[in-house]
Amino acid sequence: MRIVVVGGTGHVGTFLMPRLVEAGYEIVNVSRGERQPYQAHAAWRSVEQIAMDRTALEEQDNFGAVIAALEPDIVIDMICFTQDSARQLVEALKGRVQHFLLTGSVWVHGHSVQVPYSEEEAREPFGEYGIQKAKIERYLLDQARRYGFPATVVHPGHIVGPGWRPINPAGNVDLAVFEKLGSGEELALPNFGLGQLHHVHADDVAQVFFRSILNWSNAVGEAFHAVSPAALTLRGYAEAVAGWFGQEANLRYLPWGEWIKTVSAQDAILTEDHIRHSPSASIAKAQRLIGCQPRYTSLEAIYESVSWLIDHGNLCCPELR
Ligand SMILES: NC(=O)c1ccc[n+]([C@@H]2O[C@H](COP(=O)([O-])OP(=O)(O)OC[C@H]3O[C@@H](n4cnc5c(N)ncnc54)[C@H](OP(=O)(O)O)[C@@H]3O)[C@@H](O)[C@H]2O)c1
User: Fold this and answer.
1) In testing the pocket of ligand 1, which one of 20, 59, 79 has its CB within 8 Å of the most ligand atoms?
2) Which of 112, 150, 187, 287 has a CA positioned 20 to 30 A from the CA of residue 212?
3) Among candidates 165, 161, 160, 83, which has minimal Cα distance to 129?
């Protein structure tokens, strides 16, 4: 089987492509060729690389036709952000592929009601990114129901792994937050520190894609969360990180209006987006229908990332315990 992956050299592709190669699939990666995977792996030698810019081809309404001409049995779309973009691919691939998988986001849920929320909960997205991802999901699952288009949507939480910055216990990507916790310095958290984050190791996202392909009949027409077994509160996360450095977390809680004065405008925007969503998604459906078992808890996944950042001189912290 020939699998074309659009955007296969990023976070998820770093772990997914070697899995697919090792399972015996013929793999084609489509990207601009501007970046390398986060980790080297011998399997990349077997991946056919095709350089193209999706955005440029979409402007000519040609991207779907170019992907169809690669004659894939399966297409995995890692980088779709609008319904129109999804439509171009679906129109070109209808009746020509056995499976079409696309990366969504748990942001499709917007405000949660019951937590952890299942894939069946109502969608109340807010913010352009989540609204667009929810439109894409609705469109694809509708195409599956009405016309038998073999779509599966995978919704990751905050992707984490070696090679990049995890969302930190303040809900943004400022590395100084880890340094403060590592040195016992005071860290201010918004409100009571009870906003939630839901991380997932990139390898566990790859697992959801992989097992969707292996369990085709249970995966087609379905959406799956790709998250760790449990979300974290900001304060619980901060306390755990401080413990990794042998410290007790020195936390202070500030009302939102006060807290945003202590951080950059960019960090405040990121934190607001994260704690307004406060995701807590269930992985039960992927466990039940396609046999997924996340390898990492949220803290295990973040630990791996933080330890990579220290080893590569990106974080000035004492030794991890
Ligand atoms: N990051 C998160 O925490 C998170 C959470 C939930 C959902 N998601 C979803 O995850 C998906 C991203 O997956 P990822 O994090 O594995 O990807 P990523 O690390 O952002 O990598 C993007 C991939 O797409 C390629 N690419 C980017 N622009 C392109 C273009 N115009 N034409 C062709 N190729 C292009 C990149 O290679 P080149 O640069 O070489 O082209 C790379 O292979 C998105 O759909 C995002 O919404 C992410």
Assistant:
1) 79
2) 112
3) 83
